[in-house]
Design goal:
Layout lengths: L2 H33 L9 H9 L1 H4 L6 H12 L6 E7 H4 L15 E9 L19 H4 L3 H8 L3 E3 L4 H7 L3 H10 L1 E11 L2 E11 L7 H37 L11 E8 L10 E7 L5 E8 L4 H19 L4 H13 L7 E9 L4 E7 L5 E3 L5 E3 L4 E2 L12 E4 L5 E5 L11 H14 L2 H4 L4 H4 L10 E8 L7 E5 L6 H16 L5 H18 L3 E8 L2 E8 L19 H8 L2 E7 L2 E9 L3
Helix pairs in contact: 4-10, 8-9, 11-12, 16-17, 17-18
């Protein structure tokens, strides 16, 4: 081999080694540039594409609309721009569709919470966050953001003139901030997904950063196309959640009725996730004799189907309660109604009836979390209500619990969404609720503050219902109970009691009708009910007279002919009273009649 050949081979080997060292050095510089956070304008074409490929992992991590817009802004700065603002159409922020381009005209956009800038432009705010973008009518249509939205095309101003600042900034003060910050280049791209215009992203560069180029424009358009899909997904998800929450709220009571001797406060908190909304309900009903019925339930499921099932069960429960049915019998009927639904649904439910005459609750539970009893001194404990099977399981009957509570005590009813977490077991959850209630002032328990006091309430993944019932410091003043003798003197004694009490209350105008009513009720108790038990007289919004006995059969209005000597008592009561009714008790029944109180 001659010297020339040897020299050529050596030269070739050295050239190959030098190229390899150059490629390695380039890779090191690329890694260093990414580690030091250099802008995308200093990246190679390959690194720009790699940066763009990571957009899908950095944007759209949640289905929250405003958070998705903020993630887009944080992804753009500082790699592509020194400052960016994401503007969304007003309709998009309300969960409605974006613009399809058929209407034309100037679109109203609102600055979402999506403004990001490098430290040198920290005080730069192209327009107030959360406010509608407006300028005077003379300059509004020339605003570059408006032009971008109206034409659905990007806008590029590589070198901004003094006039351009007025066309970029939505206010004069914002334009002055841009000038002082050294902003010199502007880029705006529309956010379009599935043919819908959602908003725009405005980018600026300042100081030593190079002006935007057509390459930057192409990169921004690709990024906007990807981000717009995530924003639209968040919009659709938010709209679905809003529809379910609206349906849920429409099926809940608008206001609690007047409940003598009991102050009731109800709160409902939807889940942050649309998949956790639907199925929880509560109800408050005023029953005869000044009693109150409280119902809390939870359909085991979410979405529109669970909300519809909740509406059905609430209607059935309300109807049964208004018929003065005992809580345990209400649950038995609800179980049959749940099993009769086309969809296989299961629900938990807790029914309670409060009697202000003796401050007692009668409760029955169908697999529902136990209520909390908070004494006047703030000491809290769970009530050991016998827990039956959930509604729809087909396991009945249900066992009731009757307790007497002290004045100024509170009973807290809730659904499991109030305490449920993804990580803790049930004992920890119940213990946390008990500790939180024990530390809170009593007045805060009545305004729904407990919903926000528990950990994780801001990101609750299941909806929650909270119902607080506080007993009065004193029983209602206009409530009197008498024991009647089980003989023929009961009617006259009852008339005297009623007449004297109505005179003391200033309701003498109702004495004659009340005497007639109480005579008929006591007479029926003597004839059909094995003698009267107690006579109770109560006045709240109306005047209520009730007589208890030990008979099992409920009275019914009979058809009486002209020649019949009896059978007209209940017909007379039906004509004289606003309404009347009866209900069974553990020892017999109660028959009541209600009159309107004159103004």
């Amino acid at each position: 081999m001659n010297d020339g050949s040897r020299t050529r081979r050596l030269t070739s080997r050295l050239a190959t080694q030098s190229a390899a060292r150059g490629r390695a050095a380039a890779r090191r510089r690329l890694r260093a540039s990414r580690a030091t956070g250099e802008t995308a304008t200093q990246f190679t074409a390959r690194s720009k594409l790699a940066w763009l490929a990571t957009a899908s992992t950095r944007i759209g991590t949640t289905l929250d609309l405003e958070r998705t817009a903020r993630e887009l802004a944080e992804f753009v700065v500082p790699q592509l721009a020194d400052a960016v603002a994401v503007d969304l159409l007003e309709s998009v922020l309300h969960g409605e569709e974006g613009d399809r381009g058929a209407t034309g005209g100037v679109l109203a956009a609102r600055r979402a919470i999506a403004v990001k800038a490098v430290d040198a432009l920290a005080d730069l705010e192209p327009s107030p966050v959360g406010e509608i973008i407006v300028r005077d009518e003379t300059h509004r249509e020339t605003l570059l953001t408006t032009v971008c939205l109206a034409q659905r095309k990007p806008v590029l101003v590589s070198r901004m003139t003094d006039r351009d600042f007025e066309r970029v900034a939505s206010t004069d003060s914002a334009a002055d901030k841009m000038r002082r910050g050294g902003v010199h280049s502007y880029l705006a791209v529309p956010l379009i997904a599935r043919g819908l215009l959602l908003g725009s992203a405005d980018c600026v560069r300042a100081g030593d950063s190079p002006p935007f180029t057509t390459t930057d424009l192409a990169l921004a358009e690709q990024l906007a196309s990807t981000a717009a899909v995530f924003i639209d997904n968040a919009r659709l998800y938010g709209r679905e959640r809003e529809h379910v929450v609206s349906l849920q709220r429409s099926l809940l009571p608008r206001a609690a009725p007047h409940t003598p001797g009991l102050a009731v406060h109800a709160s409902y908190a939807p889940a942050a996730d649309a998949r956790g909304v639907g199925g929880d309900w509560y109800d408050v009903m005023a029953l005869p004799s000044g009693r109150s019925a409280l119902v809390v339930g939870d359909v085991m499921g979410h979405g529109v189907t669970a909300a519809a099932t909740m509406g059905r069960l609430r209607t059935v429960a309300r109807t049964l309660m208004m018929l003065d049915t005992a809580p345990d019998r209400v649950l038995a009927r609800l179980d049959l109604a749940t099993r009769d639904l086309e969809d296989d649904q299961v629900a938990t439910c807790l029914c309670a009836v409060f009697d202000p005459a003796d401050n007692t609750y009668t409760l029955a539970s169908a697999g529902h979390p136990p209520p909390l009893l908070v004494a006047a001194d703030g000491k809290a404990s769970y009530l050991e209500v016998p827990t039956g099977a959930p509604l729809g399981a087909g396991v009945i009957p249900y066992d009731p619990l009757r307790i007497r509570v002290a004045p100024q005590s509170r009973l807290i009813f809730y659904t499991d969404g109030l305490i449920k977490t993804r990580d803790d077991d049930s004992d920890t959850q119940f213990g946390r609720l008990l500790g939180t209630v024990a530390q809170m002032p009593s007045d805060r328990l009545d305004d729904g503050s407990l919903l926000a006091a528990l950990p994780g309430s801001d990101q609750r993944f299941d909806e929650a219902v909270l119902l607080t019932a506080a007993t009065a410091a004193q029983p209602p003043e206009r409530l009197t109970v008498w024991d009647l003798p089980p003989d023929g003197t009961a009617a006259s004694i009852a008339r005297r009691h009623v007449t004297r009490e109505l005179e003391r209350w200033g309701l003498s105008a109702l004495a004659d009708v009340s005497e007639l009513i109480v005579s008929e009720l006591v007479g029926n108790a003597l004839r059909y009910g094995q003698g009267p038990g107690q006579l109770r007289l109560i006045q709240y919004e109306r005047l209520m007279i009730e007589v208890s006995d030990r008979g099992p059969d409920l009275p019914q209005i009979q058809h009486a002919d002209v020649s019949d000597e009896g059978g007209r008592g209940l017909q007379l009561i039906n004509m004289l009273c606003r309404q009347w009714g009866s209900c069974r008790t553990p020892t017999g029944k109660i028959v009541w009649a209600e009159q309107d109180v004159p103004q």
